[in-house]
Amino acid sequence: QVQLVESGGGLVQAGGSLRLSCAVSGSISIFSINTMGWYRQAPGKQRELVAVITRGGTTNYADSVKGRFTISRDNAKMVYLQMNSLKPEDTAVYYCKALVVPRDYWGQGTQVTVSS
Fold it and tell me: How confident is the model over 42-86, as pLDDT tens digits?
């Protein structure tokens, strides 16, 4: 059974920083974990991509977070999202996603609230 567990959300003032973490657990080979990423969903809006990183380290970001957020992974089972210069519009539930061949898995989400 594959599980993704996020941590690191919370309440922060505009201009502040947060670091999200996501761990993949389960009896799986690290070689089956491919692209990992972060998505977010604000109230009344669709879930959107924030950032993704391949197993080889290639990254891609939403235009709205470029230059402020950094995605990284230190091994096949952990992915992070460093969020700097946070804005109120970054407020959302943030979800971790991992492609564990042959399917995607999602975490339960962690709330990020940025106050103005």
Answer: 999 999 999 999 999 999 999 999 999 999 998 778 999 999 999
Could you please report the per-residue DSSP string of 10-21?
A: EEEETT--EEEE
What whole-number distance in Å separates Cα of residue 45 and Cα of residue 116? Answer: 20
As given in the structure block, the two tokens for residue 85 are 């210069």
Are 46 and 39 in contact, with CB atoms under 8 Å apart?
A: no
Could you tell me if 8 and 18 are in contact, meaning their C-beta atoms sit under 8 angstroms apart? yes
Q: Output the pLDDT for position 23.
A: 94
CA-nearest of 107, 94, 88 to 40 is 94
Could you tell me the pLDDT band of residue 1, with boundaries at 50, 70 and 90?
confident
